[in-house]
């Protein structure tokens, strides 16, 4: 054990945190703004990966353009889903949970019927397949790209929700929908746009995860658990998800350094359960109660 190895573990923890955070961003927006427990979030991530695959394989679109294109495609899917189903289930959390779980099965089986169950792969520029080395530090170039994309998305979301008229409307609807309506804010439109935004963010995550791992119809399930944990621990807020992802990512990397990855995940889950036992509202409680 030396200082270089520990520092490498800490850098890897930042990378893990960025992966968990970008998986949780869309879910944070949907749950925080509309109170919807979206069980289809993992499948929206999967759709983002398959969108990038289709754009590359059939249209020859460069990978860097596939990322924003996946956002648009999956956001449109989210918009259709919200208008066709979710809008009738607000304030009915159990019904929403069951309905979105059903949607997740439909999406998964639909993709399996169209593309089959064999793994697909996304091609990236050769520079993204190398490692960055600085002295005793070494990290995958693409993981750095994921970190940068995550940081840019967090900044963009903060600006959107705290520096724009739309953000004021979203926060007003979150705190008191009836009072917001009395000021002329269309809560139905706010819910529709935030759901589409959250779905689009899941699409971006899928486009990135399709490079880190193989593209499969079931790939979303491996990310949705961590995404839900980050949202719950963070209290359903953007800042909470950022802090929760950072802390848990670093803890998993350090625990894995001293033990192994499986035992590190076990410890993380145990600590999260203990934390929620004493603070069920999460790190940052919401500013108001949704009505």
Task: Explain the overall architecture.
It is a single chain. Helices cover 74% and strands 3% of the residues. It is mainly alpha-helical. The chain has a single domain (3-278), classed as ABC transporter involved in vitamin B12 uptake, BtuC (Orthogonal Bundle). A hairpin with a 2-residue loop joins strand 1 (131-134) and strand 2 (137-140). The longest helix is centred in the N-terminal third of the chain and has 32 residues, at 3-34.
How many strand elements?
A: 2
Give the overall average pLDDT: 87
Helical run tally: 11
SSE order, one letter for each helix or strand: HHHHEEHHHHHHH
User: What's the CATH architecture?
Assistant: Orthogonal Bundle
Strand content: under 5%
Radius of gyration: 19 Å
CATH class: Mainly Alpha
Shape: globular
Instruction: Give unreliable regions as ranges.
Output: 287-291
Membrane topology: Multi-pass membrane protein
Transmembrane segments: 7-37, 57-81, 93-115, 135-161, 190-215, 227-247, 254-276
InterPro entries: ABC_transp_permease (IPR001851), ABC_UrtB_bac (IPR017779), BCAA_transport_permease (IPR052157)
Subcellular location: Cell membrane
